[in-house]
Amino acid sequence: MQLVELIEQTVIGLGYELVDFETSPRGRMLRVFIDRLSEQGNVNVDDCTTVSHQLTRVFAVENVDYDRLEVSSPGLDRPLKKPADWQRFAGEDVQIKLRVPLGNQRNFAGRIVGLRAELAVLAIDGEEREFSLEGIEKARLVPRF
Known about the structure:
Elements: H1 3-13, E1 17-23, E2 29-35, H2 45-62, E3 68-72, H3 83-88, E4 93-102, E5 105-116, E6 119-124, E7 127-132, E8 136-141
Parallel strand pairs: 2-3
Antiparallel strand pairs: 1-2, 4-5, 4-8, 5-6, 6-7
Helix pairs in contact: 1-2
């Protein structure tokens, strides 16, 4: 089983969502970002501790070799990774970076309208624009203060 699949299975089994997973260049540090489902509120320190302890036990059983494990919330500027994220966060502000420039522009900012047939729909300056999910390199929510 792939490491990311092992982590995702463990996180989901505890009732959380795996938002993102990163490793250091040599794979010695594992960074896991979790979230609660939308109706359950925000992740807190106790949630991160619970997931960290469970992953440590799973890694011991599965002989996963690592030096450090970090478990945290995705933060206010949460990355959007899955198609479902575009529906869940409709109405929120987002910044995206495209893999290939559209014209001469790679970065766009707008409000999420939703998802239509694997296209992220954003309202930018009062106009709806569609972007292929495969063409988006990075997408992050923009927190409102």
